[in-house]
């Protein structure tokens, strides 16, 4: 580069930002808001699928034995189910145990509880089956519920389905919201750049008369858009990065059973992506407004 | 150097600024454009650096057809032409030195060279000491001289001057004319629109008179005419 072009660009960009500080701030903030939502959505989705997976891997089937089965029959059932393919373990929770657990949870004494419940134990015998493979759970559950001694079968598939369903919805809503904010960001940046182009139209005309090419004139405006986008992206990365860090630490210390994603690679990718997305918004925004103007 | 064939210019508002103008100016010539206000001198000049395009007819500069010229070639045309604008057209937020330097910056001259050539040029037009002033801090004549400096700093093959002495006292005006005369002697073609009778009569150069958008008179070693 012959004369100091970078310095020229920086100077021009600085000038124009000083001229319209509020519009610049508004542009930066909308970029930031849209990217903060994007960032948190990505992390939320990553966590949701992580939770869904860990639920799936812990899948258990609860099979309730019919009321008239004897203890021997229950034991036979246990070994019968144990023999099925894909079964990792089968444990028996007798009705007495179930009642005791229930009583413990309620904090009362056992003898009182039975009389309170009308003299009979309402709990059935239960078999807790662990599958080796999450995919097998559904078929296993069907096979077990087909056994004559089994009354009902319950397993977590429903919850996982619901969670996945929810993440699917969230994904679409997230796309929608992020999309709307991105459009708003691009529009604001383009208004920003357009206003600066407009306020400098006389200068631009003079520059052209003295022989400046469109490219030469365009650069400061393009850099201005990129800077606004990058600032928004940078702020968003900061907010998302610190926010996510804080939230996951909080969850880890309070809701210890919830698995959270703390993946450094993903973290960096998302934050870097936010910066790039901000720059892209800036480039599109200024590109849109320069496209029309300079061809006159 | 410059050739116009059957050129007419009608502005969008309907003003007929030029009517069927034919003109040929050779390399190295010094030409005065005279004529009453509103005759079409500035319009004619604007065709040369493609600020305006003719409604009809052809304009050729240095063998290039400006009517068929592509938009992206225009900057290169303008870099080979220096223009002293009737209304100066200085960049308001740039200092005197930055304004003059700008003509060199757009063609990518190094910063060191820009600085050296700019300060030389400002000295030449008598603006030494005003380098860091902004245009609105200058008198009309001083602004005009900034414009002159910017127009001639990159040694254009063609120099177009639209009333370059309009705001100058006679002495400074003659200083500028000496400058233009010297530049012309070095081979630069000069076309100058002016109302300065004394200058035209004294210089004894080719005079083209425009009236109502037509070439009314074209004589070698002419005078200003319109004598009272
Ligand atoms: N941009 C424009 N739009 C419409 N009409 C214009 C425009 N520029 C000039 N004109 C008209 O064209 C005619 C010629 O104007 P021009 O500026 O060429 O005159 P001129 O000879 O340079 O006058 P002066 O000596 O006062 O500078 C005038 O009638 C003017 O009103
Ligand atoms: Mg004029």
Automatic annotation (TrEMBL), chain A:
The UniProt entry lists membrane topology as: Multi-pass membrane protein
User: What family is it from?
Assistant: Belongs to the ABC-4 integral membrane protein family. FtsX subfamily.
Name assigned to this protein? Cell division protein FtsX
Gene name linked to the record: ftsX
Q: Where does the protein end up?
A: Cell membrane
User: Which ranges carry the ABC3 transporter permease C-terminal domain?
Assistant: 178-284
Under Gene3D superfamilies, the record lists:
3.30.70.3040
Q: What does this protein do?
A: Part of the ABC transporter FtsEX involved in asymmetric cellular division facilitating the initiation of sporulation.
Q: Name one GO cellular component term.
A: plasma membrane
Q: Which InterPro entries match?
A: ABC3_permease_C, FtsX, FtsX_ECD, FtsX_firmicutes-type
Q: Which organism is it from?
A: Desulfosporosinus acididurans
Entry's transmembrane regions: 21-46, 169-193, 226-247, 267-290
**A GO biological-process term:** cell division
Kindly state which keywords UniProt assigns to this record, in alphabetical order. Answer: Cell cycle, Cell division, Cell membrane, Membrane, Transmembrane, Transmembrane helix
Task: Tell me the ranges covered by the FtsX extracellular domain, including all copies.
Answer: 59-153
From TrEMBL, chain B:
What InterPro entries is this protein classified in?
A: AAA+_ATPase (IPR003593), ABC_transporter-like_ATP-bd (IPR003439), ABC_transporter-like_CS (IPR017871), ABC_transpr_LolD-like (IPR015854), Cell_div_FtsE (IPR005286), P-loop_NTPase (IPR027417)
Q: Keywords on this record?
A: ATP-binding, Cell cycle, Cell division, Cell membrane, Membrane, Nucleotide-binding
By its UniProt entry, which Pfam families does this protein fall under? Answer: ABC_tran (PF00005)
Q: Which GO terms describe its cellular component?
A: plasma membrane
Membrane topology type: Peripheral membrane protein
Where's it found, cell-wise? Cell membrane
Q: Which domain of life is it from?
A: Bacteria
A molecular function annotated in GO for this UniProt entry is:
transmembrane transporter activity
Domain ABC transporter, residue spans: 2-228
* GO BP, sorted A to Z: cell division
Subunit and partners: Homodimer. Forms a membrane-associated complex with FtsX.
Q: What does this protein do?
A: Part of the ABC transporter FtsEX involved in cellular division.
Family stated for the protein in its record: Belongs to the ABC transporter superfamily.
The protein depicted here goes by the name Cell division ATP-binding protein FtsE
State the species of origin: Desulfosporosinus acididurans
What gene does this protein come from? ftsE
């Amino acid at each position: 580069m012959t004369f100091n072009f970078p310095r020229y660009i920086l100077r021009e960009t600085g000038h124009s930002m000083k001229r319209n500080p509020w519009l610049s701030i508004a542009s930066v903030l909308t970029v930031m808001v849209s990217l903060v939502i994007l960032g948190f959505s990505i992390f939320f989705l990553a966590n949701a699928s992580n939770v869904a997976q860990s639920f799936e891997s812990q899948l258990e089937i609860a099979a309730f034995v019919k009321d008239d089965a004897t203890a021997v029959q229950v034991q036979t059932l246990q070994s019968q189910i144990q023999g099925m393919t894909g079964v990792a373990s089968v444990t028996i929770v007798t009705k007495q145990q179930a009642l005791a657990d229930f009583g413990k949870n309620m904090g009362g004494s056992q003898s009182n509880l039975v009389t309170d419940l009308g003299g009979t134990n309402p709990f059935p015998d239960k078999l807790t089956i662990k599958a080796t493979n999450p995919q097998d759970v559904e078929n296993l559950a069907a096979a077990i519920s087909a056994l004559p001694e089994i009354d009902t079968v319950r397993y977590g598939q429903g919850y996982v389905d619901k969670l996945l369903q929810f993440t699917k919805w969230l994904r679409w809503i997230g796309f929608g919201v992020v999309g709307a904010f991105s459009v708003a960001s691009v529009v604001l940046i383009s208004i920003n750049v357009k206003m600066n182009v407009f306020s400098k139209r006389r200068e631009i005309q003079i520059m052209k008369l003295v022989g400046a090419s469109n490219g030469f004139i365009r650069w400061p405006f393009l850099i201005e858009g990129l800077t606004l986008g990058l600032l928004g992206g940078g702020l968003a990365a900061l907010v998302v990065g610190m926010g996510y860090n804080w939230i996951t630490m909080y969850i880890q210390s309070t809701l210890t059973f919830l698995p959270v994603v703390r993946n450094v690679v993903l973290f960096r990718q998302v934050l870097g992506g936010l910066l790039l997305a901000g720059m892209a918004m800036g480039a599109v925004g200024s590109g849109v407004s320069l496209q029309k103007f300079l061809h006159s | 150097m410059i050739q116009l064939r059957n050129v007419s210019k009608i502005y969008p508002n309907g003003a007929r600024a030029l009517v069927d103008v034919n003109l040929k100016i050779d390399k190295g010539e010094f030409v005065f454009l005279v004529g009453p206000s509103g005759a079409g001198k500035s319009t004619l000049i604007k065709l040369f650096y493609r600020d305006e395009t003719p409604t009809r007819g052809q304009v050729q500069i240095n063998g290039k057809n400006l009517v068929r010229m592509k938009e992206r070639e225009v900057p290169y045309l303008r870099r080979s032409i220096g223009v002293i604008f009737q209304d100066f057209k200085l960049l308001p937020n740039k200092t005197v030195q930055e304004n003059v330097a700008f003509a060199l910056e757009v063609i990518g001259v190094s910063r060191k060279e820009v600085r050296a050539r700019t300060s030389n040029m400002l000295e030449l037009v008598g603006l030494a000491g005003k380098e860091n002033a902004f245009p609105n801090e200058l008198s009309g004549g001083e602004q005009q001289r900034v414009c002159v400096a910017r127009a001639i700093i990159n040694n254009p093959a063609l120099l177009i001057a639209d009333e370059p002495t309009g705001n100058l006292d006679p002495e400074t005006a003659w200083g500028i004319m000496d400058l233009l005369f010297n530049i012309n002697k070095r081979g630069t073609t000069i076309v100058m629109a002016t109302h300065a009778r004394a200058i035209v009569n004294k210089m004894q150069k080719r005079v083209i008179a425009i009236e109502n958008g037509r070439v009314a008179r074209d004589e070698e070693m002419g005078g200003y005419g319109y004598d009272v």
